[in-house]
Amino acid sequence: MKGGLNNPRVIDALPVNGNLNNGISSDWAFDHAADLDAHTLNPAEQVQTGAYNFFNYGTNNAQVLGADVLWGTIIWIPRALTVDRIAIDVTAGAAGKIAYVGIYNVGANLTPGSLLIDGGSISVAAVTVVAATVSQALTKGYYYVAVVSDGTPTIRSILYSAWSPLGYPTTNFSGTNSGYYKAASGCVANAGLVDPFTAGSIAAAGVPKVLLRVASLD
Fold first, then answer.
1. Are 112 and 104 in contact (CB under 8 A)?
2. How far, in Å, CA of 117 to CA of 80, rounded?
3. C-alpha torsion sign, points 168, 172, 174, 180
4. How far is CA 6 from CA 3, 20, 130, 172, in A?
5. What fold is seen in the domain 49-217?
6. What is the pLDDT along the chain (218 residues), one digit of tens a residue?
7. What are the residue ranges spanned by the domains of the chain?
8. How far apart, in Å, are the Cα atoms of 71 and each of 74, 76, 78, 101, 104?
9. Which of 17, 28, 54, 106 has the most CB atoms less than 10 A away?
């Protein structure tokens, strides 16, 4: 022991980077947090900018959007970031029709809540990926990406999520619930997404793929 058995040195209980010979340091909390971060890396926080990401994963499928049926798909954002596009992949177009896309906050008990951003309207007439331009900062947590159309186009969807915080339907365990929908939502008459998400919506396993493009990691 430094100082000898007859003259021991008191070791500070707040070491800096494992250095037991230093005195008290106001940097201990910072160093400790940094050490924790280095040893508890969350791979999901490593997100490529400029790429579209769904933040929800499952079996690929295609789904017809009924007119004025509002869909909300739950996603999880692993870190603070900013998105600049909200996109869907149209696989069967509807001539002269549009869709509204946006993001909702999570409400009570993980149901869709207040409208965070209405991305506006995009055409669903052609078979292609279409996107609304936005600029929206998101913090870590759950959100709902939303889409509703005034027609009946078919877009990419997921049939079952690999995992969902919404759990399984009470009637069967064949697939997890991944979002909510509401017929006669009022979005078409509103010419945009309603706020908040229409009350009385129904949980669903098969949900549309509404992707976000990551502009920056914040």
1. yes
2. 16
3. negative
4. 8, 19, 77, 72
5. Jelly Rolls (2.60.120)
6. 455 555 555 544 555 555 555 555 555 555 555 555 556 667 778 889 999 987 777 778 999 999 999 999 999 999 999 999 999 999 999 999 999 999 999 999 999 999 999 999 999 999 999 999 999 999 999 999 999 999 999 999 988 777 788 888 788 787 788 999 999 999 999 999 999 998 889 999 889 999 999 999 99
7. 1-40, 49-217
8. 10, 16, 22, 10, 11
9. 106
**Residue entry with tokens 């008990």:** 109
Token output for 200:
């009385």
Question: How deeply is 146 buried, as exposed, middle or buried, from its count of CB atoms within 10 A (0-12, 13-18, 19+)?
Answer: buried
3-state secondary structure 173-216: CCCCCCEEEECCCCHHHHCCCCCCCCCCCEEECCEECCEEEEEE
Pairing of strands 154-161, 207-208: antiparallel
